Structure formats: C-alpha cells, structure tokens
Amino acid sequence: MKILKPLLFAATTTILLTSCGSTVRPINAALLKNTNEKTAKTTKIEDAQLKSWSYTDLASDTIPGMSVDKAYVELIPNLKGTKVIVAVIDSGVDIEHEDLKNVIWTNTNEIPNNGIDDDKNGYIDDVHGWNFLGDIVGENLEFVRIIKRYNAVFDGKSSADIEESEKDIFDLYESAKSEYNKEHKEIKANFDRYSQMLNQVTVSHDAISKKVGKEDYNAEDLAAISDPTGEDQKNIGILSQMLSYGGTIPEFKERLNGGVQYFQGRLENHFTMDTDFRAVLKDNPYDINDNVYGNNDVDGPDPKKEDARHGTHVAGIIAAQRGNNIGMDGVAQNVEIMALRAVPDGDEYDKDVALAIRYAADNGAKVINTSFGKAFSQNPEWVWDAIKYAAKKDVLIVNAAGNDANDLDVVVSYPNDEIVKGEEISDNFITIGALNYKYGKEMVATFSNYGVANVDLFSPGVKIWSTTPLDTYEYLQGTSMASPNVAGVAAMVRSCYPKLSAKQVKLVLMDSGLSVSASVIVGGDESNMQPFAAISKSGKTVNLYNALILASKL
C-alpha cells in the first residue's frame, strides 16, 4: 500500500472538496476532536454499555467508540438516506435471523427456486447471494494445499535441481513446507497438552467427586477430606490448582474439552494431507474460468448454521435492524446485506474470493466487507484483478487487517491491494485494525495487525456484541469485527451522500477519524510501545459523526 504523507493527504482532500459539488446542504456542526489525548480514560464500563461500546463517543463516554449514537441523535434525523447494498463475503449468513431477515438483499430479477438463471448472470436461483463453497465446511490452509499440489514435483529436490522457469514455484513450495513444519508442530503440541490435562483432571475429578459426594465442590471441600491416601493427595493437588484459576471443575473440564476439540479440528481440517475437500464442487480451483459451481444456500450446509456464525456476526454489526426492539442495532440503516459464502473453516481459495467480489460488483453492492485473510496465496492476481474491477464499478472494499499481531509493512497478508511494494493497485480498498474499549496505552487490540503503510484505519474490534445463528447473540472479537464496523460507517456515508465515489468515501473515513497522539502497546507486547499515529496510514480511529459532516461538504 502506498503511504500518503500528511500534506499530500490533506491536499488530496482539499481538491475533492473544491472540485466535487453537491446539492446537499453541508452540515454546520463542528467536527469532533480528541481534546484530552494525554489523559487516559479510566471510567469503568458497565456491562449494559459494553454491548454497544463501539457506538459510544470518546468525549462523552470516555470510551473510544465511533460516535454512532451521537450521529443518530444529532445528524441522521436530518438526512435523507438511499438504500445501499453491502456484500458480506464470509462463512455464510443466517438470512432468517430475527434481527437480519428484514435487511437481507433480494435479487428481484431472479424467480426463486425455478431452477433457471432468470437474470442470466451465471448463477441459478441466486435470490440472496451465492454460496461458492457448496457443501464444504472444513478446508486446508493455503500452505498445505501448496505442498499437496507440488509435492510430487519437488519432493526431495534442491534448488540446484530446479529449472529457472520453476524457481518461483519451488521457492513458494519450500516456504510452505517450512511454515507447515512450524505450525503443525505447535498445533500438535497444544492438542497433546490439552488432551493430557483433560485426562488428568477427569481421572482426578471422578475419584474425588465420589469421596465428597458431589460434582460441584470447592477448595474447602478438598481440604476437608479426612485421611487422604497418597493417590487422593495427588488428585487433590491437581484439582486445587485447577480451582485456583476460577470456576468449577466441571466448567474447567468443559474449557479443556473445547481446547481439545479446537486443536483436533485444526489437525483434521487445516493440516491434513489426506483429504481433498474441494472434490465435492467438481471444479478446478486453479482455473478462474471454471466458474459454474456452488449453490444458493448462503448459510451453508449445517442445519444448526454453526458454520455461518462468523458471517452472521459480521452482518449484524453492519446492519442488524435498527429500532425494532430486538437484539441489537447495526451501525447502518437503509442497508441490505448480500450474502456471499466463500470462507471455509480453513483458508479461502483465491478463485472464490475473486468471483465473490465480481458477483458483488455486478449485482449492485456499493460496499464489500472482507473479514478474512491468509499468509500464502497461489493466485493473488485474480483477487487483484477483482479489486480493480470493483473499483471500476465504484465499489468500496473494507478489509480486515488480520489477527496475528504483525506489522503488515513487514509481513505479507492476503488479500491486499499491493502488487509491487509501496504501490497500491486501486483507490477503493481500505484495511482496518482493531481497537480495544480501554482508551490509553491499551486501546489497540493485542491481536491486531498494524502498519503505517498497509493498515489505513482503526475501529472497535474487542468484545463486540452481535447476531449469531438461530436468533442468538454473542460477543466475538477480531479485526473481523473491526472491519464491518467501518463497512457500516461507509454504508451510512454512501446512503446519505450517494454521489460520492468509493475513492471519496475512503478518504472521508480516513480524514474524519479521531487523532490519538499517545503511545500504545502494539502486538500485545508491553515492551513495544509506539505512537498510535505511527501504526496506520491515517493515524486515526473511525468516527461516524465526523464522517457524515465531512462527507456533507464534498
């Protein structure tokens, strides 16, 4: 991503302000400013407020939210909005959720369930979007797919054995093997550790629960056991240590079992060399022109819709129906969610992402949210071409920075908008890091990626309350949650000011945010303190109130 220097950025914005007229009366309200930057906000956040902390206002609430509530009270009642379609490229969306069903996009040119491609767009019965994964749930990581694809060609060979024309692919293969060896070792070690702990706790718990006569006991109960045998003492020691972590032993067992299941799932899906997950689609994932596959089941194959949890959460952040007294309010109103399933439990395929972006652009989306990412890519050019195609269609792509606590100016993550280092391929792609609700040195999420060249803006991404399948609601966190917060703000700007281009909206989002001059902990490492202004291109946090004011002046 190309770095815009402050003066150049300001100049660019000024040009836009003076050269793009508007028939909409400018908002006279003053832009919000962070006037107390050097003082950490210490006001305790209450549980009820936590569910909507991302909507708070820093000056009023001492929480680094997006001033959403303030915008809806003071500005939005005076603005006339138009409908905006936001595409959610994700794991699937529960389109029947009580808080989403009324904001789901419908393709009015398609007759439902007649088995005919009525609108001739290449997709049969795509009423609410498309499922590019079909019945796939689990999938390999990209570096595992690389090894599987090229192992027969390169296994046992050195660089000296490789023709010049194959050097790049061989280097990719070697990098993939190195990453596999490192990560597989870590995951296997964690699986073994959790399994061992679960076994130890289970054996100890079964023995001691019989002695005390109940499943739910505490440290005092353990201390009261009379004449403990040597084995009893061993079991008491193990259980006492577990109880010191908080909660009950049954609860601790449940957490351990969750860890076992998680790491086992990763081994069986992400790292397996034995399963061809893609075979059920009957396509060639390395042929972009082989594009007739998938189905219209946008929440995926699971009847419980668990695999759509991530995408449903993302969709709710953007557009859960406001003012219906159900569940929660999304950031944006006058929005329809287009559901595009392309992200499995594993790494997404470049082809699926590229085709999903093109589908969204061709079918009227003005904002696309991409809350996913990976460290390896075999066909990044397909995604880059799709990003440029979306730019021609005036579509803004809001992208999650990733959760590896990496500096993206050093470590490459896909998707991105940079083919040659330092040069952006388009002006419609914005990458988002995650904020914590604690203003001050801890305000950057410990997991969030960052980078003054390759992350554009920060927004709330820790403990975000939103919709989950089957009419439920949960807290989730990640840059996956930060990105749809910005997508919601972008949708509101595009709704209220539909004449603005994707490029203009991107500049508005970046230039209207709140500045933070303080230093923050980066990557969860307390020894790594950096000025907040130096970990993203804008050096700001997204702010809906300011974005609407600035947009009104274009």
Describe it for me?
Helices cover about 35% and strands about 10% of the residues. The strands form five sheets. Strands 2-3-1-4-5-8-9 form a seven-stranded parallel sheet, with helices on both faces. About 45% of the residues are buried. With about 550 residues, it is of the alpha/beta class. The longest helix has about 45 residues, at about 165-210. The model is unreliable at about 1-25 (pLDDT under 50). It folds into two domains: about 5-20 and about 55-140 and about 285-550, Peptidase S8/S53 domain (Rossmann fold, 3-Layer(aba) Sandwich); about 145-270, no CATH class.
The level of helicity is 25-40%
Total of DSSP H or I helical runs spanning 4+ residues: 15
| N-to-C SSE string, H for helix and E for strand | HHHHEEHHHHHHEHEHEEEEEEEHHEEEEH
What's the CATH class label of the largest domain? Alpha Beta
Let me know the largest β-sheet: 7 strands, parallel
Strand content of the residues, in percent? 5-15%
Q: Calculate the mean pLDDT score and round it.
A: 93
